[in-house]
Amino acid sequence: MDSYKKSLTQDMIERSFYLKKHKLLLSFALIIIANLYFLKNKIFLFKMLQYTSDLFMTLQMSNSFLFGRGFMFVNRYGFFNTVHNNYSILILSPLTYLFGAYGLFIGYTSLLTIISCIFFYLYSKSVRGKDILPFIFMFFTFIISPIGFYTYDNVTYGFHTEILFIPLGFAFCITLIQNSRWKWILILLLSLTKESGPVICWTIHIFYMLFYKNFKMDKKTVRALLIYTLFYFLLFLLGIALLKVSIYLLGNNSQAFSGRLSTSFFNILSMLKNDEYRGIFLTEIYKVYLFISVNVFLIFLVCGNWKKISIIKYLFATLVLLSPVVLILSVETLAYEIHSIKEFGFFWPPRLCIILTSLLSVSIFALFYLKNEKKNNKWITLFAIIASVIFQFNFLEYFFEYRVLSRVNREMITPIITTKENNFLNCLSSKFGRSTSVLSSSFLFGKFHMQNIIWCHSDLSNKNLTPEIVICNPKLPLDFHCVALGESFKKNNGYEYFSVDNLQIYHNNTLKRTIQSCLGN
Predict the structure, then answer these.
(1) Residue 441 to residue 474: CA distance in whole angstroms
(2) Side-chain-facing half-sphere of 20: CA atoms under 13 Å
(3) Which end of the chain, N or C, is more open, meaning fewer C-beta atoms within 10 Å of its C-beta?
(4) pLDDT of residue 134 exceeding 80
(5) pTM of the entire structure?
C-alpha cells in the first residue's frame, strides 16, 4: 500500500511538472508569436517606404566602422557621438551589417522576446504555479499593446536608439531581482543608450528598493537612497562630460546641435513667458500624468494588496518618483527650438520609450511587492487588459490622431511610388554593391538601405561625399533640393540624366550598364 501511495504521489508530481512545463512552453510560444507579429508589420511598413532620415542615421551609426567610414559616423551630420551618447546601438552592428535596416528590427524584437521569456520563466518559478495572469497583463499592456505598437512604429522616422531602453530596462529589473552582477553591464548599456540613461536607471533602482525589497524608511534606507541617487547623478554628469569631450575632439558637425543643453533651459524660460507654448507644455504634462495614473491604477487593480499600501499612497509615490523622468522629457523636448514642442512633444516615440520603460519597472516590481494573494482574479485581470487597450486606442486617437488598426491594414497604407518606379528601384538596389553611394529623396532611402545613403541636405563639401547616382522624386515629401543637386552634378561632373515616371535620375558612367539592365526589365 505504501509503495502504491508513493508511486501515485510521484506520478502526481511528474504530471504537475509536465502541466506546468506545458503551460510555460505555450506562454513562450505566445510571447514569440506576438513579437513576430509586430516585426511582420514593421517590415511591411518599411517596405511601403513609410520611414525616413533618423532610421537610416541609426543604421549608419551602428555599422559605419565596419565599412571603414569612421566610428559612429553618419553621412548627414558626421560623427554622431558629438550629438548623443548612442553607443549601445553598436550591439546591433552584426545584424545591421548583414541585413541593413532589417537588422535593427530583428535585433530589437529578438532582445525583447528573449528577455520577456527569461523573465516569464523566473516569474513562473517564483509564484510556484500560482497566478501568472499579472505577468500577462504587464506584457500585453506595455509591450504588445496599442501604445507599444505606436512606439515601435514611430511614424515618419521609424527607429531611434531610445527604443533599446525598453528591453534593456526590462533586463535591468531582472538583474536587480536576481541580485546578479550583470546589473552593472545593464547600467552601462542604459547609460550609453542616451544621456538620459542614468535617470532611467535611478528610477528603476529606487522602485526596486521601495517596492520590491520592502525597505522600511529608517536611517539605513535613507542613506542607501542618497548613495544611489548620488551615484546615478555622477553617472549622468559623466555622460554629459563624455559628450562634451566627443564634441571637443571630433568637432560638432552641425550648428543645429551646438550648445543645446544650455539652449534647452533658455527655451524653457521663453516657453513659460509665451501663452501659446506654455499652454501646449502644460497639456503635455497633463497627458503624461494622465497616462501614468491610469496605468498605475490598473497595475494596482491587478496586483494590489490593500493591506500593504493604499492606492492613493501608491499612486502618489509613483508620480513623485517619476518626476525626474518628466523633467528629462521637458529638457529634451525644448532642446532645439521652442516651437518643436508642437511636433515633438513628450509622446514623440523616442521620448515615450522613457515613460514606458519606467512604467514597465513599476509593473514588474508590483508583481512581487504587492503580491495579491487572490486566486480567482482572472476576471479582474481580463477587465484591466480590456480597459487598458480601450484607453490606449482612445488616448492615441484623441491626442495624436493615430489609428493603430490603419497602420496594420494594407488597404489603409497608400503606396507613394508607382509600380514601374518600384520595380526599377528594386532592380537597382539588388544589383548595386554595398559601397555604391546613392543620393536620393528621403522617402526612397528604404530601397537603398544596403547601400551608402547620402542625404540631399548633407554638407557634401565637408565630408567628401560624392554620389555615384542621384535619384529624386519631387512629388514626395522631404525632397529638399535633390533635383538641384542632380542638376549640379549633371552640369559640373557630366552626369547623364533620364526619368522613370516621377523619378529623375542622374548618374555617372560607372553605373550605366547596371541601370540599362534594370530599364530593360
Answers:
(1) 8
(2) 18
(3) N
(4) no
(5) 0.90
